[in-house]
Design a protein that fits this description.
Length: about 230
């Protein structure tokens, strides 16, 4: 729940929330993020993608509108598509996406898929924002379970904060149009601060968007306060 909450809060950031109209949730699993992100009023296209077709079909009912949503309709209708497929598959339907989210997905990927994943997202889709979360392996000592290799049987790896940052910095070296920053999700009990949070998050922001923001600051308003630079100022 804290992961969903933090992803939602990140999408709500006033720097870009109006620009997030089309969003992809990769590795969406049981659509847990949906009840949070459907509150984004500017969102009008939502794509859920997971490789597990049975899981998608079993949970599809969760995407139906609630009765109250028929009574009080969104000003901006929300179109939802669910695709069964892999994060490594480029598809023209994914183009023109503003934000990509991948919550606790990368640690489930085999090495060849993990390698292809950044090319699909940063090279092909090229969204304005990318939010990726993964378990923080530094935190695993807090679970105090000597028999635990990984937190889940399907995890192919779990990375320390340093390993995750190295991976993300390597991405921005290959795709220099992006900046990356990091955050933790969910602190442990007092005394465990040195291990960081339970999950870790990387936020990639396309530099063009930073430029757009600085353009707004450099707005050219005439003496009647009418903007001459096509900026929403
Ligand atoms: N994002 C979900 C959430 O926040 O509730 C949880 C993700 S779950 C831990 C990992 C998901 O990744 C599983 O549903 C699995 O089927 C999916 N997955 C694994 N490999 C994938 C791939 N190559 N492409 C898309 N989804 C994949």
């Amino acid at each position: 729940l804290q992961r969903y909450g933090q992803v939602y809060q990140t999408l709500l950031n006033e720097k870009w929330r109006k620009d997030v109209n089309k969003l992809i949730d990769f590795g969406c699993s049981e659509f847990g993020l949906f009840i949070y992100i459907k509150r984004l009023i500017n969102l009008n296209e939502l794509i859920f993608i997971d490789i597990d077709e049975d899981l998608l079909l079993d949970n599809l009912y969760k995407l139906r509108p609630l009765t109250v949503e028929y009574l009080k309709r969104r000003d901006n209708p929300l179109n939802i598509n669910v695709f069964c497929g892999s994060v490594s598959n480029p598809d023209p339907q994914l183009l023109n996406t503003d934000a990509v989210v991948a919550i606790e997905l990368i640690e489930h990927l085999y090495p060849d898929v993990l390698e292809a994943f950044p090319y699909n997202i940063f090279g092909y889709i090229q969204p304005k924002l990318v939010i990726i979360t993964t378990p923080n392996a530094d935190f695993n000592v807090v679970f105090n379970n000597k028999n635990m290799k990984f937190r889940h049987y399907d995890h192919k790896f779990e990375w320390s904060r340093q390993q995750f940052e190295d991976w993300a910095y390597n991405i921005v070296t290959r795709f220099p149009e992006y900046d990356v920053s990091f955050d933790g999700i969910a602190y442990g009990p007092s005394g465990t601060e040195k291990y960081g949070c339970c999950s870790q998050m990387a936020l990639f922001v396309k530099k063009e968007e930073n430029l757009e923001l600085s353009k707004i600051n450099l707005c050219k308003c005439d003496k009647n306060n009418v903007c001459q630079s096509n900026n929403d100022c």
